[in-house]
Write a structure and sequence with these properties.
Helices cover about 25% and strands about 40% of the residues. It starts with a helix and ends with a strand.
Amino acid sequence: MKTGIFLALSVLLGLIGLPSHRQTRTSHYREMAKKVLEAREPKTNWRVNTLLKADFDCDGTVDYAFSGQQGNRYAIGVLKGPIKASSKHWIITFESGRQSQDSLCSLDARINLEQRQDHKNRQCKGINLHDDMCDSFHIYWNRVRKKFVWSRL
């Protein structure tokens, strides 16, 4: 009964333009994650609308990723969940415009989730970074090195 009422209320809120509980919760996590990254990397312009939520480090907990810009570098910030002021974070950056394997063709790039499997065949998520001008980057957790690494096809 409660589920039916909640579903009806969510639909009604969506129809009249008010945020649903899920939208409000996502906004809350987005703002919390952005604040932690801004405190740790204040020179990066974090793009709040690029939030990705998934288990990136294959530990069974939801993590959070944003893209941003540091001058002529494209940045991806990953926060280990659950989000708190002391959350571990990683920053992966890519230059733009250089003719090298670790460079984007444009800072007009986007991040999306991609499916990955770890060494135990567990389903994890990776991050696909692409600018539609060059080959995309596949960013994923390396359990041996205990950090994020990338590959490019």
